Amino acid sequence: MSATIKITAATATDQPEWDSFVRSYPNVSPYHFFGWGEAITQAYGHDKIYLLARQDDEVVGVLPMVHLKFSFLLNELIALPFCDVGGCLAVNSDVEGRLLAEAEKWGEQLNIKNIQLRGSLYNKFETTDATFTPIENDKVRMLLTLPHSSEALLTSFKSKLRSQVKKSEKNGVVFRWAGEDGVDSFYSVFCNNMRDLGSPVHSKKIFQAIMNNFGENARIGLTEFEGQCIGAGLILSTDKQTSIPWASTLRQYNRLAPNMLLYWNCLKYATDNNKEIFDFGRSTKNKGTFRFKEQWGAQPAPLPWYSTLNNTQQGNGKKMAKVSVREKMTDIWSKIPLPFANFFGPQLRKYINL
Question: Which of the residues 167, 210, 225, 353 has an alpha carbon 20 to 30 A from that of 346?
């Protein structure tokens, strides 16, 4: 007779067990670590509901969720917000089913309008009457399988790419690594870039909290020119994977190719520290960022997301209307003064789950 699976809401005391299970899981993302939810709670005040499945006192599954709620306008559980992947991890489909059922119970208690899962599932919910249905998604995750050394990686690049990296150094751009002390420099570049892209910027607090919670698994790379930071990226790592959720450069210095030096050093770090995969993050096929990542050798991988709002409920007309509104808002936001964007951006961004 199989032992009973017990589901509980994890607390801070469960973090060592939680992270130990996450580390043991194949191809896991750094966003699954307990510290991701901790950082979001500390920076934005959102409640996290981290479900932990045990069998015979052994952890057999986790489902990290964050509750985004704002008045009567927003009430959803996201696994996980502000990243590409972060859904359910379980040793088998039975454990996964139990975790998802528990998530639904939490949804009922909190009167949740939507539960969203970002990641692969054992059970593929493809029917319109299923609780979770696939979200129509034109995004892919760009992944690069790393060789045994950074020298081998550099050799694998086309000569044009290698010359672009060298061009940056010849232009006088220098690279250095930083920890928590690099947040201010990173954020000064990030704020400018997000405004120019027409997107509300995250609060500096979330980056400070991420660096604090991830410890040695988080680093900030900085590219500098004549003593000024002109490019920056934040990387997070597991034992086998490095991800770069945020990277930015100042547009007026793009002629110096600081982004090439930034990404090369992030890739070099991952390879030399025995990582197997470098995750460039989410992109739309054949768009600019897709092609940028593809030139490094990254290949597209599916990015399955599921929701309790099925595609019929979402409706093509509604989705097209949302896209139109988003495009207009992006254009408006890119033109507002930077101080205004930096003040009001974090107050909006904390409720945008992407």
Answer: 225
In-domain check, residue 30: yes
Instruction: Based on the fold, state whether residues 103 and 171 are members of the same structural domain.
Output: no
How far out from the chain centre does Cα 293 lie?
16
**CB of 204 closer than 8 Å to CB of 197:** no
For residue 4, the 8-state DSSP code is P
Tell me: do 76 and 164 sit in the same domain.
Answer: no
Q: How, if at all, do strands 114-118 and 74-79 pair?
A: parallel
pLDDT in tens, the chain (354 residues): 357 999 999 999 999 999 999 999 988 999 999 999 999 999 999 999 999 999 999 999 999 999 999 988 999 999 999 999 999 999 999 999 999 999 999 999 999 989 999 998 887 665 555 688 898 888 999 999 999 999 999 999 999 999 999 999 999 999 999 999 999 999 999 999 999 899 999 999 999 999 999 999 999 999 999 999 999 999 999 999 999 999 999 999 999 999 999 999 999 999 999 999 999 999 999 899 999 999 999 999 999 999 998 654 454 545 544 555 677 788 888 888 989 899 999 999 999 999
Contacts 24+ apart (CB under 8 A), 94-98: 94/5, 95/5, 95/53, 95/55, 95/60, 95/61, 96/61, 96/121, 96/122, 96/123, 97/123, 98/5, 98/7, 98/53, 98/61
The one-character DSSP state at 131 is: S
CATH assignment at residue 266? 3.40.630.30
Q: Which domain holds residue 199?
A: 147-275
* 257 and 191 within one domain: yes
Rounded CA-CA distance 183/232 in Å is 9
Is 249 within 8 Å of 112 (Cβ atoms)?
Answer: no
- With 0.85 as the threshold, say if the pTM is over it: yes
Looking at the structure, tell me whether residues 164 and 101 fall in a common domain.
Answer: no
Number of domains in the chain: 2
Distance CA 49, CA 110 (A): 11
Task: Among 107, 123, 139, identify where a domain stops.
Answer: 123
Instruction: Give buried/exposed letters for 18-56 (b at 16+ CB in 10 A, else e).
Output: bbebbeeeeebbbbbbbbbbbbbbbbbebebbbbbbbbe
Residue 22: which of 80, 67, 94, 103 has the closest Cα? 80
